[in-house]
Amino acid sequence: MKPEYWLTQSKDKPLFPELEWSRPENRTLAGKLLIVGGNLHGFAAPAEAYAIAVKTGVGAARVVLPNALQKTVGNILENGEFTTSTPSGSFSQKALDELLLHSNWADAVLFAGDLGRNSETAILLEKFLGKSPLPVTLTKDAVDYVVSAPQTVLNRPNTLLVLSLSQLQRLGIAAKFTVPISFSMDLLHLAEWLHQFTTTHQPYIIVKHLDHVLVAVKGKVSSTTLTEEKPIWRVETAARAGVWWLQNSNKPLEALTVALHNSLAN
After folding, report:
1. CB atoms within 10 A of CB 12
2. How far apart are CA 207 and CA 212, in angstroms?
3. Which residues are CB-contacts of 170 (< 8 A; sequence separation ≥ 6)?
4. Spatial separation of the C-alpha atoms in residues 14 and 153, rounded to whole Å
5. DSSP structure class, residue 47
6. What domains appear along the chain, each with residue ranges and CATH number?
7. CB-based contacts of 236: which residues, under 8 Å, 6+ apart?
8. Is 217 exposed, middle or buried (0-12, 13-18, 19+ CB in 10 A)?
9. Which residues lie closer than 8 Å to 194 by C-beta, 6 or more apart?
10. Distance CA 148, CA 160 (A)
11. CA-based angle 31:35:37, to the nearest 5?
12. How far apart are CA 132 and CA 181, in angstroms?
């Protein structure tokens, strides 16, 4: 028997259609998303996140990249901003004040990935999460940074992690969560794990397993069946989730679940 805390949806059976029908029609009311990511050797993740956020219906989006990319990107990326980078081309910890200033413009922040592996970027991310009150979504290698320092997010409200099962496994170990995750888990046991973890800890979770994407918020879980035609995953999922969440900040489970259905339908 499926537990009461677990809801399921498919492309043909959305869980919260009323949320899709009540979206802001005016872009000035559709929220502002700050997207952060990239390093000297790549910026595909923030660029993709920007395109998906616009497609999903965000009111306005802005991308912040390390200034090591300025000559490469120039004016190619619409609404791009640049901030202090390390000699190796990642975000410098000196960029904190600049990033906080950019975040004053936004309603939510998405760390989209391609950050590279740099100790200064790790310090920047930790300090930003400690100082900013905004809802923050993290995915790809941004999650790797917080898995290494889990207290950064375990007690932080309004934090969403869009991660792989292996990243979730490492997060559980780092958090000293008593129940282990295995790749052979069935959906019922993973849903139970997510129920227990998000009852104990603050972050919201989106993770893919066995052709399903599961959302967990404060002990409640939803799962969405993927299709072969639309095997959605991390950057697209994080961008759509970030937009729907900022537009429905008081209904995080519903918003994140609708974001997955929206992705299947588009």
Report:
1. 9
2. 8
3. 147
4. 30
5. H
6. 6-265 (3.40.1190.20)
7. 48, 52, 263
8. buried
9. 205, 207, 214, 216, 221
10. 16
11. 175
12. 31
pLDDT in tens, 153-204: 999 999 999 999 999 999 999 999 988 999 999 999 999 999 999 999 999 9
State the pLDDT at residue 229: 62
CA distance 195 to 55: 31
pTM above 0.85, yes or no: yes
Q: Which residues contact 60 (CB under 8 A, 6 or more apart)?
A: 27, 31, 32, 33, 79
Amino acid at 37: G
Taking only the tens of pLDDT, the chain with its 266 residues reads 789 999 999 888 899 999 988 887 777 788 999 999 999 998 999 999 999 999 999 999 999 999 999 888 766 677 789 999 999 999 999 999 999 999 999 999 999 999 998 999 999 999 999 999 999 999 999 999 999 889 999 999 999 999 999 999 999 999 999 889 999 999 999 999 999 999 999 999 999 998 899 999 999 999 999 877 666 689 999 999 999 999 999 999 999 999 999 887 66
